[in-house]
Amino acid sequence: MAAGGGAEAAAEELREAGDSEDDGGEEAEETSEESSGEDEEKENEAEIQRLEEQLSINAFDYNCHLDLIKLLRQEGELVKLQRARQKMSELFPLTEEIWLDWLKDEIRMASDNSEREKVYDLFERAVKDYICPEIWLEYAQYSIGGIGQEGGIEKVRTIFERALTAVGLHVTKGAAIWEAFREFENAILETVQPAAGSVPSPEQQQTIGAQLEKIHALFRRQLGIPLLDMETTYAEYEEWSEDPIPEAVAKNYKRALQQLQKCKPYEEALLVAETPKLAEYQAYIDFEMKGGDPARIQLIYERALAENCLVPDLWAQYTQYLDRQLKVKELVLSAHERAVRNCPWTVKLWKQYLLATERHEAEHQFISENFQKALNAGFIQATDYVEIWQAYLDYLRRRVDFTQDSSKELEELRSAFARAVEYLKQEVEERFSESGDPSCTIMQTWARIEARLCHNMQKARELWDSIMTKGNAKYANMWLEYYNLERAHGDTQHCRKALHRAVQCTTDYPEHVCEVLLTLERIEGTLEDWDAAVQKIENRLARVNEQRTK
User: Fold this and answer.
1) Rounded CA separation 66/104 (Å)
2) Is the peptide bond before 276 cis (omega within 30 degrees of 0)?
3) Please, are residues 517 and 537 in contact by the beta-carbon 8 Å criterion?
4) Which of 152, 170, 352, 403 has a CA that sits 20 to 30 A from residue 342's CA?
5) According to the 3-state scheme, what is the secondary structure of 399-426?
């Protein structure tokens, strides 16, 4: 026993010693962790400061925004985080993941009704960037928390209906919205049922009947749409309904099931394809276009764009479809606005947007502001600026009533032409070392408008003088453009003068302008005019031939 007692005592001593060492080790470890944590915190603070400085230099650094938001969230800097997210959302459309993180953080912080309204506003912004079934589901479920407020139940139903309009046709993700809506209506049904054992009053029976009809209607609507796992929904409806399923509903279900089989190969192709799946989406779009259902076509475009948001051609294709087929103002302008927000460097999208705003009779100020945004979008080549100016000037020209000698719209058009010429000379040439408009197409258009529509040949001639001084006097086609303008809206004297200058200055095709001058004199000139033209042409061609032989 003594020996056994000694062994136990020794073991106890060893355990105590070990415990003592463990305690010391733990304390050292805790100190080390604290020190490490403080270092990491300081590093993060320094990195946050660096990222904020970087964004103050270049606000359009997308990855910099992402890194800053991630760090601020990690550090629990809620006020700064809110501000950072707000800034990023003003400059860029946000992905579903970024929106969901933001929404979940705001939901956690919302404690009263006024803050709940702010969360609703945030959801409204979130569902506008891209098609997001998860955000719609989150929105609808969040709204259920507000059913105690006045009109709360109707608000939930409205949000669910909007969610169904937006994503209810989504083959793989739409069913979740339908099911959540039915669950909500089933929960409402429970609240209107009479207490166990009691007989419902006529009013209660009417309320229960109306609520049951809502659930029936949801089942019927859902079963008419090709959605994944719709067989389960059909079985659920059979089990839930006290009456047999109506023949019309069964027929719609079978039709939708057949449609689902046609969609499945495209859905399966998307499932196995690597991101961004552009070719697979394009094939799916082509399939839906043949079907011709506008809602389904719109949905597949939206799905494709959620994963290919930086593909300008896809946005152009989508907005063109909306422009030509749906023609619904809100839908069309919203899509155009999102297109330029995602691909601001693409001048084609801005031009289409300007045309769409004019087509839908948007306010003049709104169109002008969008044009200004386009100028600030940072196009990648000088000619893009020429194109956007031309598109805007076309719009301004269409606003003018040229039957009046003067008007506010005409003055605005002339002022815009002058601004365009100055902008290309100052801003664009400085950045690209070229104006993007060597042939002065904008000034040519201005001259034609002055001559043809304003009957102001003096201004047209001044513009052409300016065009020729910009290195265009050596080109035959430029002189002939000017000559044709004089022929149509000027007089013979100015036509002759233009051609004499053309003969003198043209270096690319001098023979051609010489022929045009002789043709003019043959029809309208005197003998003296003819002789002067022939002599001038002979002298000029002699010099040209001499230069060519050198």
Assistant:
1) 17
2) yes
3) yes
4) 170
5) HCCCCCCCCHHHHHHHHHHHHHHHHHHH
